[in-house]
Fold these 2 entries.
Entry 1:
Amino acid sequence: MESLSVAIACDHAGFEMKEEVKKAFESRFFELKDFGTFSSESVDYPDMIHPMASAVNEGRYDFGIAICGTGNGVSMTANKYINVRAALCWKDEIAKLARQHNDANIISLPARFVSQAEAEQMIETFFTTDFEGGRHLARVSKISQLL
Ligand code: RB5
């Protein structure tokens, strides 16, 4: 975890959660780059998520954290990028399986449906769990094979 560079982004619904996540995890990562938004003023989540997911897609950051009200809009946007696997997580076990089975590289969180403590626990789990590989490797490799 200490060697990872991580990008974080949110919309207005995720702003407060993002700020608390930064306080809790800034010192735990090698780098935590904030792509906004920087206030609770209403914004369009793709404006922050595209730059963040694009940076993860290009390998400029190892992982990402994306937060909006439901976690869906940020996931949908991030998953437009071929090297991104954004996983919407609302339970700790899902965060764990997103890494173990899906090799997810962005955790998407629904700020309006999980508590701050639940979100931070999921982040802790996500960033301390390894991909299992094995049978899951072939499946993950097929995700970006479009027909
Ligand atoms: C904002 O009201 C809300 O629509 C947004 O945060 C997100 O939930 C969209 O997917």
Entry 2:
Amino acid sequence: MEKIIVANLKMNLTFDEIKKYKNEIEKQEMRNFILAPSTLYLSYLKSDKYELCSQNGYYVDSGAFTGETSFKQLKDIVNYSLIGHSERRNNFNESYEIVSKKIDSCIENKIIPILCVGENEIEKKDNLQYDKVSKEIISALKNKKIDKIIIAYEPIWAMGTGNIPKYEDIENMCNYIKNIVKKYTKNYKIIYGGSVNSKNIIDICKVNGIDGVLIGGASNDPKNIIDMYNTVKKYVK
Ligand code: 13P
């Protein structure tokens, strides 16, 4: 099965840089490539060469919520949305309850959620990674009719550090996630995020059960992301 590559540009790139980015990635067909830029650039980046993902969204459809963009507004532009990214949970106090409401709104608006889960450094030290991940998934999905979902396992301690878990630990977590998520839907994928780069992307994509990757920092340069994309297409079947 072909791997999925999601590029989370976070709060990076100016409009000039985005224009160059679009120009580069539109030079080839980017099947199963999902781009998550700042909300500001989503309309501009609409393309038939790749798919779009929002980095966030608000769960109320419309109203007096200055500064927010609802999933209802996003649905004509994106197919996916990141939900519960650790940067939102930690920097913007996104609670389990808010994450759950966002999943509801995605379902309602037919946006495929990319639910981000993963343990921090302390939880890892205390061997609580499985408890954390199950809590994050169950609280987000319980009592819901999920059509399709992507779970992104992103250990917080690995993000932006250059460190990644042992491949067997990724595989074990992947199996663990699979056993939880399959109770909610048969239509799921599991991807890995956290310091994915051109050196480790192949090995990560070859881990049993991993359907793709979520890339942060290494996706900011369009040439780099195209290289990683082409390498995966070539070496991982
Ligand atoms: P890095 O790839 O920069 O570690 O970021 C991972 C991430 O947060 C993707 O959502």
